[in-house]
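BUG-453 | component: ligand-complex export | severity: low

The export step for MV4 jobs runs without errors, but we want the raw record kept on the ticket for reference. Input record follows.
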Amino acid sequence: MFRKVLVANRGEIALRVLNACKELGIRTVAVYSEADRNSLHVRFADEAICIGPPRLSDSYLNVPAVISAAEIADVDAIHPGYGLMSENANFAEVCRASNIKFIGPPPEVTRLMGEKEKARQAMKKAKVPILPGSDGIVPSVEEAQAWAKKVGFPVILKAKAGGGGRGMRIVRSTDELPNLFHAANAEAANAFGNGDLYMEKFIDDPRHIEFQMLADEHGNVASLFERECSIQRRHQKLIEEAPSLQVTPKLREELGRTLCRCLAEIGYQNAGTVEFLMDANHELHFIEMNTRIQVEHPITEAITGVDLVKAQLRIASGDRLEEILPGKLEIRGHAIECRINAEDPRRFIPSAGQISAFNVPGGNGVRVDTAQYAEGMIPPYYDSLIAKLIVHGCDRAEAIAKMERALSQFVVQGVETSISLHQEIFQDAGFRAGKFDTGFMERFLTSRAASGE
Ligand code: MV4
């Protein structure tokens, strides 16, 4: 096992990784920006190194600054958490060249999955179901017309370098296509420095379901089942749950097995998530793969009993899955996560400032992952996630009851938070019945606005 690990992140995930290291007897090094001097990830690490001014590009996203800190502290490995350096293949390559283990997949695999149309072809080759669409990049409006005719409208144009919904356009007819093609191309070129597009059949109001995978460095792969992530607004997830009510044991088993074979073929290593859209026929279609630990990993930890971050550390140090995982993986109960953001629950404007009161709920089946505390500061430079509230019950009804109880005991004063929004969603009959898709939040917010609340 590693002697010393640098955590190249901040906030709750930095603390989550530090905790896993501590429990494995690994020494920890935090890096921090000038805005995070008084953060818990700094306080709880064995060593901490300031890497620059508050802005992300000057600190947490500054490759030379992070690598210099790793060399000064003489660490064996770097854990990137999520976001920031986590899916940066160039960073992983610099780590490799500096003899520092990057805790994640090899840069070649990260690069493959980052090129969405190549990921799509790799999945197709391994018999993972993909949506009808183009074979690779669509180079011109003429070829886009030809593919659209073959696939049938509506189609969606996506940026090969994309993610987060940027550079995407839904196309419903032939005459719309030229303008939307040029718009997507320009937006992608501007956002990602690469305007290349590919095409898929468009699924109206899909569910978003993702499979958690673990792969060791000896060719073994395991599926840790799925998460349902359809409750989102503008590509920001708000609530996730595991398992999905819509995935049958047969589908879970078969797709899990296919994905294990696929990731072994690709040479995948460490933790990863394969994202799918579920259509009205309850069929799953691959859309993309995330080559990192995800924000919502704790719900999978709750239902499987596997510590995913410790698994990442052990995999990266060479352990085999059979040493890490129980003999048979099984789903126990139901877990739900609410992302608590420091933002106005009506208009979603980030709310930075000093926290004056902070009470975190607890009790059986309640977990809170946060790096916040009373008197803590929420700087304006970073994302607005201040806590993840995770509950685990014997079934979905118990998990919902626990979440409502826990939300009512979660007190944050000094900044605005999304706690009251979560409480409203948990009152919604459709949500309670499990009847929702990726269009849920938009409809929910529209009807709330119309009712004048
Ligand atoms: C789609 C889709 C419908 N059909 N692809 C949005 C972000 C990107 N990761 C993929 N996205 C979508 N791709 C096809 N062929 C609908 C979405 C989509 C979406 C997907 C997952 C979660 C929330 C979403 C919200 C709007 C659109």
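Assignee comment: Attached the raw record above. The radius of gyration is 22 Å.
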